[in-house]
Structures are given as C-alpha cells and as structure tokens.
Amino acid sequence: MGSRLVSKTLIIGAAGMIGRKLSLQFSREDLLLHDVVPFDGASFVSDLSAPGEAEKLVASRPELIFHLAAIVSGEAEADFDKGYRINLDGTRRLFEAIRKVGDGYKPRVVFTSSIAVFGAPFPEAIGDEFLNAPLTSYGTQKTIGELLLSDYSRRGFFDGIGIRLPTICVRPGKPNKAASGFFSGIIREPLAGQEALLPVPETVRHWFASPRAAIGFLLHAAKLDTAQLGNRRNLSMPGVSATVGEQIEALRKVAGEKAARLIRREPDATIMRIVEGWPRNFDARRALALGFRADASFEDIIRIHVADELQKSSAPRTNSA
Amino acid sequence: MGSRLVSKTLIIGAAGMIGRKLSLQFSREDLLLHDVVPFDGASFVSDLSAPGEAEKLVASRPELIFHLAAIVSGEAEADFDKGYRINLDGTRRLFEAIRKVGDGYKPRVVFTSSIAVFGAPFPEAIGDEFLNAPLTSYGTQKTIGELLLSDYSRRGFFDGIGIRLPTICVRPGKPNKAASGFFSGIIREPLAGQEALLPVPETVRHWFASPRAAIGFLLHAAKLDTAQLGNRRNLSMPGVSATVGEQIEALRKVAGEKAARLIRREPDATIMRIVEGWPRNFDARRALALGFRADASFEDIIRIHVADELQKSSAPRTNSA
C-alpha cells in the first residue's frame, strides 16, 4: 500500500486503536494524522468541530481521507451536547470543508459508521435494506453522518463510502466501562491469566470483527470502485455472529479449560437491557459481493488477537499510552 | 377540535397550502401561526434557522407544535446551502429550543416528512422496515429531521411523531414548476376547462393523498397515544397508488371524456428520469393499524378536490395570495 495508492492520506481520529493500526499500513511520508488528543507523529491536534479546524485538515488536498473520529456510544449518551457537537457537527464541518475547497478537489472519504445505526426489533439477520432506527444518540449521529456522506457524494463534492463496523473484538488494552466491554474482556483477560466478569447469559448473540478484519475493510474501501455502489454508499460489513457461549467455547479450544474457568458470571440487569437492543446477526450480502472479507470464525478472531497483540515482535510500536 | 385538545397550538409553516387548511381546524384564539412569508393572522414572521428565532416560537410553551416548514424538493436541490440551512438547521434549532425550555415542558411535535426519504430501487411496495436511502438533498434533510425527532423523543425532550406524506393531489392553485406538478395538473386543469401537459407515460405509478386526507393524518398524529409507537416514531402514511392511466380514467368517470381530452401528451425525458426514482407504492401497515386513514380511491381524491376547492362555500377563506 502507501504511496502507490494515493499522494496523501489523512487519518482523522488517528490516535484511537483503529487509527493507530491503520496508520501502520501507509508510508509515514504520505500521512497526515489528526486527533483531538496529542500523540507521537501527529500532524494536527485539534477539535474537529471548532470553526476553521476542518479547513486546515484538507488545505493540502489529501486524496484519501479516513474519518474515524467519534465520541463513543456511552459518552455520547451521557453528554448529549458533546456527542452532537463532535459526531454530527464535526462530521458536517469536515464535509463542508471538502466541498468548499472546490476546484476539482474530490477525495475518497472513508467514514467509519457502526452497527449502532440499527435498533431492535430486528429480523433474524439484518439485511442491506433494513431501516435505520437507532436507539442511541451515537447511532443517530452515525446515521446522520451516513446520510450526509451519501448526499455529498451524489452531489459530486467527494467520493464517499461508509463502513458499518461490527463490534471490534478482541479490543487490546485495559478493560473499559463500555457496556460492550465484556465481549472483549472475557477473551482478553483469561488469555492474560486474569479473571473476567460476564454480565449477561451465554445465550446472548452479537456481531464481531477482529481489528485486523476492520483494517482490511478500511483499506478495501479506500481502493474500491465506488461506481459499483450506486447511490447507496453505506455498507454493513460482514462479521462473525457468535453467542457468548460460542465465544467461551472458542476460548476453550484456543487456550484450554483453565482459561475458560477464569470467566466469572456476574449478571448485570442494566447491561443486559442495553445489550438486548443491539444487532445480533447480519446478512451482509452487498459488502461480500463487493469483496469485503470477514474473519473465518470466532476461534480465528482469538488467534488473531494472540498473533497481533500477544506475540507481536517486528511490528513498529505506535503510542498506546 | 381546538381548545378541547390542547391549550395552545403552534403551526410552523402556516402560510403553505397544508398550513392554511390545518389552521382552520382550530379555534383562532388557541393558535400561534408562523411562516417566513407574511400572511393574514401571522403571530410570527421569521426565518426559523436564524439564531434566537426558534426560541421565540416556543417561549409561550405551546403544547402542540406542527412543524410543516420546509424548502421544497426542487429548491433544496437547486440551492444546496439554503436547503440545509432551513430543512436541517431550522429543524434542529426548533428541537433545541424546545429542549432548552426544560422545566417539564414536553410538547407533542408533529413533523411533516415525505416519501422522498426513500430512493430507488424499491420493492413492489415499500414496507415499514425499508431503508431510507434518499436520492435528493430534500429527502436527506427530511430523513435527518426524522432521526433527530426520534432521538429527542427517546431522550424525553418532547413527544414527537413524523408523518411521511404521500404526494398531495389534487394541489389547488396555479400550476408550478415542480417535477411532480403534472400529477395534480392533469386533474386540476381539465376540471377547470383548461389544457394540461402530461410529460410521462400512462404507466407511471405514484402514491397519493388528498389535502383532506393529509389534514386528517396531522390531526390524528396530534391526538395519538405515542406509547404505541415505541422508538419508531416516523410513519409512512397510507395513500392511493395509481398509474397516470388510472388517474385519467378516474377523471373520465368524474368529469367525462371532454375533460380527459384536455390532457396533452408531451414527453419530457428529464421529468421522466426524476420520476423514475420516486416511490410508487407502499404497504403502510403500521400507520393503518394506528388508525391513519387514506382516501378510498383516486376517484374519491378527485371528488374531494371538486367538493373542497371548486364547490366550497361556507368554509372561511384564508389568504391564498
């Protein structure tokens, strides 16, 4: 990849887990990296929603833009104004800044959306024509981002593609307080010899992709012939649908009974209620036909975590402070 | 209706065709009427998207708000900035103004959306779970309004309901340049003894409601127990699906062969291309189950136009300048 693909690549939200892994896929000299938090190698540190900041990011006319920046679900729910300011206004300011460059500038824009654009009740598997009825402010903001991306693309202001990521699993790093945190925790902690809490029954089903698969989606989206998309530029990515019971069984296969025994059941009604509104399974036919590839199984998702996070050696380290 | 229902009713976009007809359904002393264009009986004349204006509209805490104001499809497509400013920012400013009243204020908000939130390709009939993939900036802005309405309602800031109106037919008044204008023109002009142009083949199918049915939808939405909606607060209204050929046959039945002969075929490839992207038919099951009622047939739609516009006598006149 890298300079062969485009002249300049801008990654907005580059300090996050996906942003850091994505950055490693490009030659450093081709990259413009942005985040609101300072980090090693940053080209810009700013609040995307502040007047004039988006304009600075696109002033050098990067031909490929990954827009990964977002206030996450829990925080957007807790802080209504902040969620709308960053996730809606920030995204709109970026799109407006690109439009206003004019002069034939028409970059590829890859926008990370989320399965949070869907809300229960669901069919058995969510198809490509299922309505967006999000049940969180975050999901609402991501859906609005998708709609703006489609309209700006249809108008010819840029060449956009929206990628609805499954829940990323196994997320490396420390446990966090996200309601979805346990999906990674029950794998990551036992692999590190530590206890993990499981707040929901083993029958809970959810939709997963490894960080490696997510990076694959973004790179594929960057190269895709978007003429194939018609006017529907937002795609549910393929993933692995697994119950918590199947997750645990896969852990047992990869790391043995001892690891599986480190999972402690501690039912939490609040988390259960939140999780009940989340997608469980997709029929991601369009994305598959367009060449997006999911992990092969939940066992593979665990093996990828082991290979990329626990056994990694030669890969250059980015800041993970 | 009127004072029995609520203490105060605000109609935003009250000078439009639907706004004027809706106003007549309430006692004058209960009404606050707003539009951007001056009109008889206006309580407010202002640009909803201008800072501070939305706050003035809700300062007296109206318990029922109809938000009908919009830049229409053709103009929103021709003037990108104006469409987003009025249809997105104006709507958001209104919702924010309501939220910021606080202090237990939680009005019913009835928002007129449109079948333009859908874009081709379509199934045979568009169901209640079909995706929103609009093909115009107007449709994009209406979809965003729907999403905001859902999220603000879920958060408890107001009690919202979005009503996706079919194409209103027969629109009274002069012919206009909207691409959809001919659907009304081929009925209205012949009934008035005048020639009408038909730019598309008779096989074109579309989705209609009379102005009377539209007013019925809005009044029903104002009274509905919204607990029945769950978190899906935007509803495709029932309507009449008819081909242009069926429209003409209905005209023939109501007004005779002489009227039907006043329709002159003048194919227009541009209009045909636009119309091809429009919805043709719906399966509006949810709205029907909730008690929304469509016109019985296209013949009835014509008879309603004759009764309400051509034979009207006792109904008080609003400004129609």
Can you walk through the features of this model?
Two copies of one chain form a homodimer. With 321 residues, the first copy, chain A, is α/β, with parallel strands linked by helices. Chain A has a single domain (2-310), classed as NAD(P)-binding Rossmann-like Domain (Rossmann fold). The first copy, chain A, is 39% helix and 15% strand. Chain A contains eleven helices and twelve strands. The first copy, chain A, has helices at residues 17-23, 53-58, 73-78, 80-101, 137-154, 181-191, 211-223, 244-260, 269-276, 285-289, 298-310; strands at residues 9-12, 31-35, 44-45, 64-67, 108-114, 159-165, 167-168, 196-198, 205-209, 234-236, 240-243, 263-265. Chain A has a seven-stranded parallel sheet, with helices on both faces. In chain A, helix 1 crosses helix 7 (211-223), helix 4 packs parallel to helix 5 (137-154) and helix 8 (244-260) packs across helix 11. The longest helix of chain A has 22 residues, at 80-101. Chain A starts with 8 loop residues before the first strand and ends in an 11-residue tail after the last helix. Chains A and B meet through helix 5 of A and helix 5 of B.
What is shown here, in short?
By secondary structure, chain A is of the alpha/beta class. Chain A is built from eleven helices and twelve strands. Helices cover 39% and strands 15% of the residues of chain A.
